[in-house]
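Protein modeling request. Please complete all fields; requests missing the sequence field cannot be processed.
Requester role: graduate student
Desired output: 3D structure, token encoding
Chains: 1
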Amino acid sequence: MSRERDTAPPSGPGPGRRAGVSRRTLFAAAGAGGLGVAAGAFGHAAVAGDGVEASDVVPFRGVHQAGIATEAQERMHTAAFDVTAAGRAELVSLLRDWTAAIEDMAAGREIGGGATGGAYDAPPADTGEAMGLSASHLTVTVGFGRTLFARGGEDRFGLADRLPSALIDLPHFPGDALEEARCGGDLVVQACADDPQVAVHAVRNLARIAFGRARVRWSQIGFGRTSSTSRDQATPRNLFGFKDGTANLRNDEQAALGEHVWVSGLAGGEAWMNGGTYMVARRIRMHIETWDRAPLSEQENFVGRTKREGAPLSGGTEFTAPDFGIEGRDGPLVAVDSHVALAHPTANGGVRMLRRGFNYTDGSDGLGRLDAGLFFIAFVVDPRTHYVPMQAAMARSDLLSEYLRHTGSGVFAVPPGAGAGEYLGQGLLGG
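Delivered output (431 residues):
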């Protein structure tokens, strides 16, 4: 749901992304005269041979991992893994292999020898379902769970003394109905793309590569982003039908990102997290059928915004800052226990977060109700200050709470990006 901001509103949605260059086109260009990819600064498009811009490629290497401040894509497949590697060397080998595979897929290439180019009597290096598809702005973001550092008192990989203090187990919030099989994990992979098959292909290949060293603990497929991370994007809607992410951090707010998202200034055993961030993931099931029977007046009062325009109930347009002091006949026009009021920075010590959540539907339950809702993803500089207080307040008082049930949860330390020749997490594991 929405996070509030008091900065000037954007001038409106800008032009959409230009059509990407397909893998077939890129490979044809390579055959004709060579394919040169210039991995520029983060956020700049790669450039293919003959001056053709590969506008659907997000550079993999950089100061920060892609898939965080990247313009939010339309599809997501996130998976958590339990590591089964025998020791630190096997864990390092897994992350090296993942890094190489992610770099290939993000550039629109098949992994290794490809789906058909290897030995005929051996499994292909790539599963092949993305052959002929464009890179679709694929980003793959990798993070580490608390149990990777210590589990049940066991320091499996010699990392216990490098556990970041901000990598906490979230407290139990009122109304939580967490399912163990949907929580936690040693590693997390967030694959986002504009084509669902490209995102699923990425996670499928990483799970295949991990065989014998890590296994999938849980996964979630999402569609329809529920936030905007650039000023070129219009505000999307969640499954309650309301605009979501109106006040989200944008990727051009560099000072705010430095304050609220990117970790800096750490020393000693935690220094490896400088340039990284923390990912909070929550699977939030919505009671769709009950919500659909609620009057429009109740829906808008609970959210604190109009359903059509997304404007605060205190007046104005979507990007008008809500005025919590304007009184109506029955109290403040924006109810003090509405979602907007409780999520606003003024109610949370001024903290903000970078949200990259998605809608999801997982069929129906045994009673014929939709298993649907929001897969909440937020990147924050410290979950203790930038998530826990806000969620605790909303769990206690948010009018929307009666329509929501949190069924999955995880917090992950997302290391900085990989430089030339480095693998993801090298600052933590070395070598």
